[in-house]
């Protein structure tokens, strides 16, 4: 199996990450598409309902305005019928006074009786000022020619309405009765019919009667032509400086007037837009939260994946190395047994003593290496029995006195009294042997390099928080900084002649018994701490089984 640093593994990781993020983006788009489609449907539905209601209100208002104007023309026709043959007031006086009362009359601006030349004959109230050129007005000429009532502006751009009814005598228009209206006060619709609605009443020439103060866009050139197009095409959406409005135009029945109702859809659609923004905000928060949670989870999963991949690669490597190591160790051991038998024949005389001791030391070193290789290739099974830990540490220290380094290193031991625990004495002895042996070899190497004058190794045993802790310290200066994170990896060593299996096997032996092995850099050297759980032998079911 390739390690995580392999290019193919990196490509696979990047492809997996891109796929996951693409899936999250797709889910985000799907989540956003729902509110957007719903918003679009709601907007279309509300806009359709709003425009239908606007058109209906425009038609209803046009009918109401037509009925009101029909009433005004009817009342003026009654007044015209009371005018005498010589354009005298006769019976019309009382009716004119009723229609022109300031508080309740239909024509609070006043009523005029004009002759065929446009001159005022009388008025109510008396002395009502009249523009002198009424004869030239289109509405005046229209009444004279058609002998039919009409409704129009008194003058172009004027807010005063005129309702003119002819006075016909012998099939000739002898004059006309004209009622004056202030469209800002006396005409229905002078006040807004609702919020965000603008009501306009104008003639075919574009003269506005309602409202008294029209918006600027209603007085722009070409507005009358736009209204005429509305009459043939129905409602339209107009783009104005203040935004978009929906306008609907309809003729006022019985007149030549046009009624336009313009509605601002912004306020109507605002709640739907606000709801969409709220939904998008909630989705954005959820998406961000999802990404954060995914990132944290992905980081944890990815680290777990790297650890598992690293362990799998280590297991494969260790399996291959273990097989090779076992084969090599077996052959080496066979040769060492022959050397031991041969060295036993030599006489340990004074002349040969140094050579014999040197050969025996080297044989012991090779035997330790072969044993380490065998244990690495075939890890031992754990057999827990009661162990007196201080006694075991003393035996390990005594066994290391035969090493050549033992003569140069001062080994100090603080072991205390009896401390019983459950453990495998062989594995514990192997771990302690490796730790103390490494410390002694490192201290002597530091002396040979001139780093220390007196090599020292300290071994302490103590109890701490329900654990037995064995500390092995040296004054060799510690490993190089770049080796700290790899101290317990197999075949990784900073010693020129080291193999790199001692610490690996020591950690494995401790962990097999539920303990742990840690490293700490101390001033001038290193400290390896072996932690084992203290469990009284009589509490263990294993011991009871052994006793039985």
From TrEMBL:
Keywords: ATP-binding, Kinase, Membrane, Nucleotide-binding, Phosphoprotein, Transferase, Transmembrane, Transmembrane helix, Two-component regulatory system. It comes from the Bacteria. Its EC number is 2.7.13.3. SUPFAM superfamilies: ATPase domain of HSP90 chaperone/DNA topoisomerase II/histidine kinase (SSF55874), Homodimeric domain of signal transducing histidine kinase (SSF47384). Residues 327-536 form the Histidine kinase domain. Pfam families: HATPase_c, HisKA. One of its GO terms (molecular function) is kinase activity. It catalyses: ATP + protein L-histidine = ADP + protein N-phospho-L-histidine. InterPro entries: HATPase_C_sf, HATPase_dom, His_kinase_dom, HisK_dim/P_dom, HisK_dim/P_sf, Sig_transdc_His_kin-like_C. PROSITE patterns: HIS_KIN (PS50109). The chain crosses the membrane at residues 20-39, 276-298. This is histidine kinase. It comes from Archangium lansingense.
């Amino acid at each position: 199996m390739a390690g995580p640093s392999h290019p193919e593994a990196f490509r696979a990781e990047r492809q997996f990450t891109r796929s996951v993020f693409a899936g999250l983006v797709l889910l985000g788009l799907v989540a956003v598409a729902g509110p957007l489609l719903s918003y679009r449907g709601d907007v279309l539905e509300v806009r359709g309902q709003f425009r239908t209601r606007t058109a209906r209100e425009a038609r209803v208002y046009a009918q109401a305005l037509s009925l009101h104007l029909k009433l005004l023309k009817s009342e003026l026709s009654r007044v015209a019928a009371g005018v005498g043959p010589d354009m005298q007031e006769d019976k019309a006086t009382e009716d004119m006074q009723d229609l022109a009362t300031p508080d309740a009359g239909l024509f609070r601006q006043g009523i005029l009786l004009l002759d065929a030349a446009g001159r005022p004959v009388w008025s109510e109230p008396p002395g009502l000022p009249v523009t002198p050129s009424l004869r030239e007005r289109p509405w005046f000429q229209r009444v004279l020619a058609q002998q039919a009532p009409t409704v129009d502006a008194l003058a172009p751009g004027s807010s005063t309405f005129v309702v003119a009814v002819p006075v016909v005598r012998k099939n000739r228009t002898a004059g006309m009765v004209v009622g004056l209206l202030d469209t800002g006060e006396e005409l229905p619709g002078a006040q807004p019919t609702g919020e965000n609605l603008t009501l306009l009443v104008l003639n075919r020439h574009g003269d506005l009667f309602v409202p008294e103060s029209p918006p600027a866009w209603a007085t722009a050139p070409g507005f009358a032509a736009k209204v005429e197009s509305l009459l043939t095409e129905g409602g339209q959406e107009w783009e104005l400086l203040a935004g978009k409005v929906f306008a609907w135009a309809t003729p006022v029945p019985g007149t030549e007037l046009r009624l336009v109702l313009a509605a601002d859809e912004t306020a109507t659609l605002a709640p739907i837009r606000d709801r969409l923004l709220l939904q998008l905000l909630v989705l954005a928060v959820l998406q961000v939260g999802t990404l954060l949670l995914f990132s944290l989870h992905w980081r944890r999963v990815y680290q777990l994946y790297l650890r598992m991949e690293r362990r799998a690669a280590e297991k494969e490597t260790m399996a291959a190395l273990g097989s090779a190591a076992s084969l090599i160790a077996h052959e080496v051991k066979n040769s060492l047994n022959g050397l031991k038998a041969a060295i036993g024949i030599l006489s340990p005389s004074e002349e040969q003593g140094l050579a014999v001791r040197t050969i025996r030391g080297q044989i012991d070193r090779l035997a330790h290496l072969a044993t380490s290789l065998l244990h690495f290739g075939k890890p031992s099974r754990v057999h827990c029995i009661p162990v007196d830990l201080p006694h075991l540490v003393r035996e390990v220290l005594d066994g290391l006195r035969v090493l050549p380094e033992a003569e140069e290193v001062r080994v100090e031991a603080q072991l205390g009294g009896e401390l019983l625990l459950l453990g495998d004495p062989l594995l514990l002895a192997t771990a302690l042997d490796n730790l103390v042996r490494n410390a002694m070899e490192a201290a002597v190497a530091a002396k040979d390099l001139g780093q220390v004058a007196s090599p020292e190794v300290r071994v302490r045993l103590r109890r701490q928080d329900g654990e037995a802790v064995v500390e092995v310290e040296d004054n060799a200066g510690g490993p190089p900084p770049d080796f700290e994170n790899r101290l317990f990896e197999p075949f990784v060593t900073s010693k020129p002649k080291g193999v790199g299996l001692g610490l690996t096997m020591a950690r494995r032996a401790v962990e097999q018994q539920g303990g742990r092995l840690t490293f700490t850099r101390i001033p001038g050297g290193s400290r390896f701490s072996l932690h084992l759980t203290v469990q009284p032998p009589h509490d263990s079911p294993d011991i009871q089984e052994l006793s039985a």
